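Hi support team,

I've been running sequence recovery on a batch of backbones for a student project. Most finish fine, but this one hangs at about 90% for roughly twenty minutes before it completes. I'm not sure whether the input is malformed or the queue is just slow. I've pasted the structure tokens below so you can try to reproduce it. Let me know if you need the job ID as well.

Thanks,
M.K.
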């Protein structure tokens, strides 16, 4: 009995010793994990993030992003530039904020680059685990501005990885408990529909991700339209009342003659609902289109098939289904082409372009006003002894017109940007030139809320390289208030601009750096660069028109020979509010140097600049 009791006692002691040893052994740390509630949400709504397996009492950064495809290139960027991201992770753009986290992760959720900086001077505080050297940043970066940067961050190498880009929701103020858990509420930012990744990372390098499905966000897509010939989206695109789009361009694949005007109507996702061609046996060129008050469309351009001369102004009026009501020509024995049309308050139309049949010089700017049936009411020419023409016209708040283009008759250089202001009858009130000793061109103009004007184009007189985008702001009398250039040592052109919902500006054109791509630039109200993106393939892409869609995203129209069915196809690209496009469509970024020009004092056919 004593023996049995001793055995029991020994067993109990052994169990207790084992328990003590077991209790003193370090337990395996639970793997990092995130849980989202709910897992499907809309932009602006809240999502609860529960994290486990993180470091004890450590700060946590939480990012929200969408999967995108990184360009396959290495870009060496020399500072100074901002690496501040906040509120963006994976971008080079915004002012540095203290305590923010910047990250780019691949599909294996590996943190490639993390850094926390001080808001005052941009001093590097702590490089987080996951990078080999701070100088090498693997990821997708889509915004650049100038500003201070730590001297160690002088080169950024962009590599070919699929990454997630993040808007930081509360990066500061989220700290784990001693148990390595946390709970935080994030707000879903403006984003496009689909699966997005929420990522949390702490200052010890622990990282976890979870997928969130976003509904009700911006739609993003791209579409091509064309046949075996050359088809180019040279004119405007408008968003229609049904949420779809009307696209105007030229086609050699379809129609009656060599080149016809082409009007395409799509649904909200860019799918064709109908299309119509307009023309004769020869060539027709569409310069612009506007939607009319009766729900139809007015198309302006040039025609070789009809009219009095070699090429005449051409105005086609259609119903809401693209059926032509009437077509009118305007011109003499020379060449005339209309680049832009607006509907006037009396239901008529005003067209701006150029003429060699009338005026003072070899080519003059021409403004034509018609009634609602296209009958000419008056016309005016503007110019000197040389070549002058305009490519844009807007109705101004005083009932007159402002027309924008270029002049070789006046100004400081061989070709200067030119702004002409008229009254309601087309009588010139004043005109101003802008430029230097090189080639300077105005392409697109808007009237601003202060009664002044903002216009964009391109310049070889000022800026960083051979040709730069040029943005000029004037007062109501056309006197320059400020100007900005955006470019690289290559060539960049701005062709169309809009004023955005945030009272800033967006402009579209193309760049010649690594090939030729769509270029989209976003600025604030003072012209300061907020971000820029390029879009394209291995071929040539030109963007001619831009609009801001009802969901806050952007719609660009132009042409591509990288994608589609023919040599050139019309290309329509729909982005979200940050210019992001779907996974699989290659987008890039340029380091655009922003400069201010000091002002000392080609016929352009919307396909290529004539220098």
């Amino acid at each position: 009995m004593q023996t049995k009791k001793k055995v029991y006692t020994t067993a109990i002691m052994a169990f207790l010793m084992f328990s003590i040893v077991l209790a003193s052994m370090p337990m395996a740390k639970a793997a990092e994990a995130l849980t989202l509630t709910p897992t499907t949400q809309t932009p602006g709504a809240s999502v609860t993030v529960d994290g486990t397996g993180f470091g004890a009492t450590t700060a946590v950064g939480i990012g929200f992003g969408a999967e995108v495809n990184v360009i396959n290139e290495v870009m060496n960027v020399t500072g100074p530039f901002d690496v501040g991201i906040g509120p963006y992770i994976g971008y080079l753009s915004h002012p540095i904020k203290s305590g923010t986290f910047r990250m780019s992760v691949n599909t294996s959720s590996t943190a490639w680059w993390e850094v926390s900086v001080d808001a005052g001077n941009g001093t590097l505080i702590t490089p987080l685990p996951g990078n080999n050297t701070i100088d090498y940043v693997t990821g997708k970066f889509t915004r650049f501005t100038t500003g201070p940067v730590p001297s160690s961050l002088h080169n950024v190498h962009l590599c070919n990885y699929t990454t997630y880009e993040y808007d930081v929701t509360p990066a500061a103020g989220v700290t784990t408990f001693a148990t390595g858990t946390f709970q935080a509420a994030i707000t879903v930012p403006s984003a496009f529909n689909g699966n997005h990744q929420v990522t949390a990372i702490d200052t010890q390098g622990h990282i976890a991700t979870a997928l969130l499905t976003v509904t009700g966000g911006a739609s993003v897509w791209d579409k091509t339209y064309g046949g075996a010939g050359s088809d180019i989206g040279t004119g405007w695109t408008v968003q229609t009342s049904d949420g779809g789009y009307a696209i105007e361009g030229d086609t050699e694949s379809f129609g009656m003659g060599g080149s016809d005007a082409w009007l395409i109507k799509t649904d909200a996702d860019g799918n064709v609902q109908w299309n119509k061609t307009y023309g004769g046996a020869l060539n027709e060129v569409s310069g612009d289109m506007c939607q009319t008050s009766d729900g139809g469309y007015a198309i302006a351009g040039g025609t070789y098939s009809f009219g009095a001369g070699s090429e005449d102004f051409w105005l086609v009026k259609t119903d809401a289904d693209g059926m032509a009501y009437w077509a009118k020509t305007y011109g003499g024995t020379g060449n005339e082409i209309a680049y832009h049309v607006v509907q006037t308050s009396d239901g008529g139309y005003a067209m701006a372009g150029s003429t060699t049949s009338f005026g003072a010089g070899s080519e003059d700017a021409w403004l034509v006003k018609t009634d609602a049936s296209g009958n000419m009411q008056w016309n005016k020419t503007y110019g000197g002894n040389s070549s002058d023409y305009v490519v844009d016209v807007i109705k101004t708040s005083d009932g007159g017109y402002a027309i924008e283009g270029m002049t070789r008759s006046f100004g400081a250089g061989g070709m200067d940007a030119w702004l002409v202001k008229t009254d309601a009858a087309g009588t010139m009130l004043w005109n101003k030139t802008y430029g230097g000793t090189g080639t300077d061109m105005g392409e697109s103009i808007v009237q601003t809320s202060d009664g002044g004007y903002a216009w964009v184009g391109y310049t070889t007189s000022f800026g960083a390289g051979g040709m730069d985008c040029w943005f000029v702001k004037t007062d109501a009398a056309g006197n320059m208030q400020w100007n900005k250039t955006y470019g690289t040592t290559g060539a960049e052109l701005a062709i169309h601009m809009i004023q955005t919902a945030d009272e800033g500006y967006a402009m579209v054109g193309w760049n010649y750096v690594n090939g030729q791509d769509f270029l989209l630039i976003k600025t604030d109200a003072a012209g300061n660069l907020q971000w820029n993106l390029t879009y394209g393939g291995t071929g040539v892409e030109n963007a001619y028109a831009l609009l801001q869609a009802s969901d806050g995203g952007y719609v660009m129209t132009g042409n591509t020979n990288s994608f589609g069915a023919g040599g050139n196809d019309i290309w329509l690209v729909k982005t979200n509010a940050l210019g992001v496009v779907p996974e699989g469509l290659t987008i890039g970024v340029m380091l655009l140097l922003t400069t201010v020009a000091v002002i000392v004092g080609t016929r352009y056919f919307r396909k290529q600049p004539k220098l």
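--
Follow-up from support: It reproduced on our side and the slowdown came from queue contention, not your input. The longest strand covers residues 60-69. No action needed from you.
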